[in-house]
Design goal:
Elements lengths: L2 H10 L7 E4 L8 E7 L2 E8 L2 E8 L2 H14 L6
Parallel strand pairs: 1-2
Antiparallel strand pairs: 2-3, 3-4
Length: about 80
């Protein structure tokens, strides 16, 4: 799964667009779930008070997207 496919899925499932920040480096503007590409690796985490909480790193985009889906499910959204 690519980020674009994931964005389409979230839109179809009515997941709020601001639940997740999709970043290419940089810092999110608020506390939220994040998927970013930094230093050649994909990172999925929750950003809170300047910290990356529950940070997981992946070598490929598909694994990062699938892990992010699992995190979204944990906060109560149906994404299948």
């Amino acid at each position: 799964m690519s980020i674009e496919e994931l964005k389409d899925l979230l839109k179809r499932k009515n997941v709020p667009l601001d639940l997740v920040a999709f970043l290419d480096g940089g810092t999110p503007l608020k506390e939220q779930l994040c998927l970013s590409f930094e230093r050649g690796m994909w990172e999925v985490y929750y950003y809170e008070r300047g910290n990356k909480i529950n940070l997981h790193r992946f070598l490929n985009e598909d694994e990062a997207c699938m892990y992010l889906i699992e995190m979204i499910k944990k906060v109560g959204y149906v994404v299948e």
